[in-house]
Design brief:
Blueprint: H1 7-10, H2 15-21, H3 26-30, E1 35-43, E2 53-54, E3 59-60, H4 66-79, E4 83-87, H5 96-105, H6 113-121, E5 125-127, H7 137-144, E6 151-152, E7 156-158, E8 176-184, E9 190-200, H8 205-208, H9 210-213, E10 217-219, H10 222-235, E11 240-245, H11 262-266, E12 273-276, E13 282-283, E14 294-295, E15 300-301, E16 304-309, E17 315-326, E18 329-341, E19 343-346, E20 349-352, H12 358-363, H13 365-375, E21 378-382, E22 386-387, H14 397-414, E23 424-428, E24 444-445, E25 448-451, H15 452-458, E26 464-471, H16 472-482, E27 496-497, E28 510-512, E29 515-518, E30 539-544, E31 547-548, E32 554-560, H17 561-564, E33 578-585, H18 586-597, E34 599-600, E35 608-610, E36 617-622, E37 637-643, E38 649-654
Parallel strand pairs: 1-4, 4-5, 5-6, 9-11, 11-12, 12-16, 21-34, 23-32, 27-36, 29-35
Antiparallel strand pairs: 1-17, 2-3, 7-10, 8-9, 13-16, 14-15, 15-16, 17-18, 19-20, 21-25, 22-24, 23-28, 26-32, 26-33, 29-30, 30-31, 36-38, 37-38
Amino acid sequence: MTLFSGLSRRGFLTGTAATALLTLHPFKARAQAGQVHLRLIETTDLHVAINPYDYYGDKPDDTQGLARTATLIAGIRAEAGNSILLDNGDLIQGNPLGDYIALEKGVETEPHPMFKAMNLLGYDCATLGNHEFNYGLEFLTASLAGANFPFVCANAVKGPELGADPLSDETLIAPYIILDKMLTDGAGNEHPIRIGLIGFVPPQIMQWDEANLSGKLSTRDIVETAEAFVPKMKAEGAELIVALAHTGIEGGGRIDGMENAALYLAGVEGIDAVLTGHHHRTLPGPDYEGIEGVDAARGTLMGKPAVMAGFWGSHMGLIDLLLEKTDAGWSVVDHTSEARPIFERVERKPVPLVESTAAVSDAVAADHQATLDYVRRPVGETSAPLYSYFALVADDPSVQIVSQAQLWYAREMLKETEFGALPMLSAAAPFKAGGRGGPDYYTDVPAGPVAIKNVADLYLYPNTFRAVKVTGATVKEWLERSAGAFNQIEAGAQDAPLLNPDFPSYNFDVIDGVTYQIDLSQPSKYNNDGEVISDGNRIVNLMFDGAPIDPAQEFIVASNNYRAGGGGHFPGVDSSKIIFEGPDTNRDLLVRFIQKEGTINPSADANWTFAPMPGTTVLFDTGPGGKGFLADVKGVKIEEAGEGENGFARYRISL
């Protein structure tokens, strides 16, 4: 391809990376007459990360960027005679570049920058991710028009109702395609092959983006849909079927409508390989060890080749297939999988393994600069620093300011309504709290000017405002669900791990307007699906207005469309409780609140703490940058406890 013809002159590869990229794969060396080495190249969960740049921190970032992944892709193509390039969804939302395009520039005059970059790389096909729907169907449709490659998704259906069976549905976009390819075998002979590509999205988009999709779209179970369409693809001549599955990997048995269904999708007869994502993890690798049906070291699901390539371009996914042609057709006789990174950590710091492909960066240079101008616009000032290093262990200023803004907005919107006299609370959760995002994935805004990039950093998602009416009893259960963020701690334990690694930080809602303690000696009452798993009672001393909360009292809780629509499986919280749908995104109202205040005071008020457990200590990891804020944390005693893994710092809490 001419795109990469000049890259060697630019010296875009390090010596070690070049050696690794150009090492001959055993399948290519082994392939004989009638045998073909085919490479399936995956990107997934790019979230508009085109350049290696952190728009929230306004600084370069060597852990991300399709421009870097493109260099790996070029190396694979240079070394492989047969390859196809595929994307697994979550493309157009996820950072301020995506917001700038969706909310300000639009895609009427030129393609979305994500597709400018992908068109250069020559993708063969892609599927939709759940975040494709965040800006609405009209923007999604307009954006897809700029892609020079097809999209497929079999389980997103037009209209408010499903058909009698999957094959009778009118899907939003094509459910699958069949590519006619010519592949070269080990003897240099060409063979035709028909490759079927089918896409899937989590059915939960109907909850997560209810405001955008209600009445316009419906979703089916992923496995049910595959079981219907795969035989149809076979009947139409597909000789190899690859699932582009924007869904994670979860064991424990298949559940109808499950969000993370890749394992059971792989079990569908006729599917030969699975590209997976959504979880922002990697396969092969240790992330999925111990799940029945998953070979985490080899990268297989139900014995079939699979791959998950991280997020933001952190990895390139690669499935190598050795195919053999017989009278019965093509069959997979051997396979390997790999999630190949664009960086490594050396002494806790990310070090790039490849440099950027200049043509990709050049294609989006104007959009990149416009986004920088956008995120640097000042909106006000903060009298205290905004940081999220301790958001999972103590009341936190980055969550506090979101709650303050939501309460202000709720009172303004509801003051002339029948709900204006009810007591109002606000639920907010930390978004940037380390975890799989790494030791630098935290909000850290110094006292002083606040720009749009800082607001976007505080509130990552383009959620829209919702207010729900619930009882005091529901408030209690809402917090019990949040308290699943913590492991159960035995009284007197020393340095027990505090945080549940499987609990996403965006489900750790803190409710302002009440005070409470979390008793870690109790088991979690709910699992991650919101199912009752014990009679645990972690939320104690829950008070409103200085007195124990009345279970029957009605409250208005300010929140967002994701939570109010049932996202996160919070008991008693769903769309039937919504009493007000705001026309504004939570991020926009945060900007307006800061502009109105001029100078904000985000200091946390310690409205929640851990219940005392004398003689007990716990450990947790956070970013090294938290060290400078230890003295500011209220309601908990924290001390340094050495280095954590993968660049994190470790801290101890005396309960």
